[in-house]
Each structure stands twice: as C-alpha cells, then as structure tokens.
Design goal:
The protein has helices at 3-6, 38-45, 64-73, 92-105, 117-121, 134-144, 162-172, 187-196; strands at residues 17-19, 25-27, 30-35, 54-58, 81-87, 108-113, 184-185. It is α/β, with parallel strands linked by helices and 201 residues long. It has one domain. The strands form 2 sheets. It has a 5-stranded mixed sheet with strand order 4-3-5-6-7, with helices on both faces. A two-stranded antiparallel sheet has the order 1-2. The radius of gyration is 17 Å and the shape is globular.
Length: 201
C-alpha cells in the first residue's frame, strides 16, 4: 500500500465537522505534527482553533531521525497529512537521511536552517544573514523578543506576524532547492496549509 493510499480519508466523527455558511456540515482536515522540541510543540498547539483543522501535536522520544521514523509509522487514514518539524543543524548528511526517510514514508518535512527559532524570528524582522549556529539564532530571537525563552513559547507572541513570516520565508528560499541554505525554513508551507485548513501544499 502506498503512502497516498494509506492517507485516504475516512469519514470523521461528528466532532470533526463544522458548518459552512449554508448550514451544511463540512469535514475538518486533520493534521499530525511531530516536533523535536517543546518550542515547536507549543507554537503549533497554540494554532488550534474551533474553526481550523484538527491538530494532533506530539514530541516523540529520540533524535531527528527517530521523529521522522515515528511519523512514517503513524501515517494513516486518520490524518490528511503528517508533518515533521525538525532542524537541519547545518548537517547535510543528517538532512539527506531525513529527506529520504520522509519521502519513502509519505511524511512532509518542515525544515529550518539552522533551527526553528529562525521561523519565529521572521514573525518580527527580516533576516538574511547566515547564522554560525543554532544558538546564535536563539540569541538573536531573545534580543528581538525579550519575553521569549525555549521553555515559554507562546503563540500569542507571534500570531500577528504569521503572514509576514510566511512572506519573509518564501523570499529567503524562493526555489526550495537546498534545505541547507542558511538561513532558510520551509515551515511556512505547513503554516499556510493550516491556515487554509487544507492538507495540500
């Protein structure tokens, strides 16, 4: 069975339905988002809404590869799309392995170089200068958003900048050809899917 066949949508229960303007019930899209850390989890958990798609957000045990592997194991007709939100850590070998694993299992990747904190930073400012490390990206984010820390990520601190972040991320990486372009992030693809309420890219 192919990943696409495994994702064939089944009829959802009443709780996964919403009414359109004519009063007809519509099925809500359902996403599984697996993250490697609490920062990512808290951000996407904060995107849940009554009118938006159904979101299951989780942090599997293990490193980058384990996150992608578990995501592949959980691809099923329960979800319209399964995503992993992971960092490249500026490691080409690691990134290539994650891309292969995701492609083989029908999982979509939201990759950030060097780390997810770049995505958060883009909600507030433009930034195109390469980072030397993930820690340097985190330090800059703290300078721009003093209330932020890795243990206290609040979507409310970023919600007004989501459109700007998507625009800036697209401009950083217009061709999507090299996930290790520093800096770059493809998380905008996931976020735009969630905002549309559709699993399509």
């Amino acid at each position: 069975m192919t990943p696409r066949e495994r994702r064939t949508r089944k009829v959802s229960p009443e709780t996964d339905l919403k009414r359109n303007r004519r009063g007809v019930r519509e099925e809500r899209s359902s996403f599984l988002i697996l993250c490697e850390g609490k920062t990512e989890r808290d951000y996407f958990a904060g995107m849940r809404s009554r009118r938006g798609p159904h979101l299951d957000v989780d942090i599997p045990k293990g490193g980058h590869r384990a996150v992608v592997r578990e995501a592949g194991d959980r691809v099923s007709d329960e979800y319209d799309a399964v995503w992993c939100v992971v960092d490249t850590e500026l490691d080409r070998s690691l990134t290539s392995e994650m891309l292969r694993e995701a492609e083989n299992s029908g999982v979509r990747l939201g990759l950030s170089t060097p780390c997810f904190e770049l995505w958060l930073l883009l909600h507030h400012v433009d930034h195109a200068k390469p980072f030397q490390s993930a820690e340097s990206a985190k330090k800059l984010l703290q300078d721009v958003v003093p209330t932020w820390s890795e243990g206290t990520t609040k979507f409310a601190d970023f919600v007004t900048g989501v459109e700007d972040a998507c625009r800036r991320a697209r401009r950083l990486h217009p061709d999507d050809d090299d996930p290790l372009k520093n800096p770059s992030t493809s998380v905008w693809r996931l976020v735009e899917s969630l905002r549309r309420g559709s699993a399509s890219n």
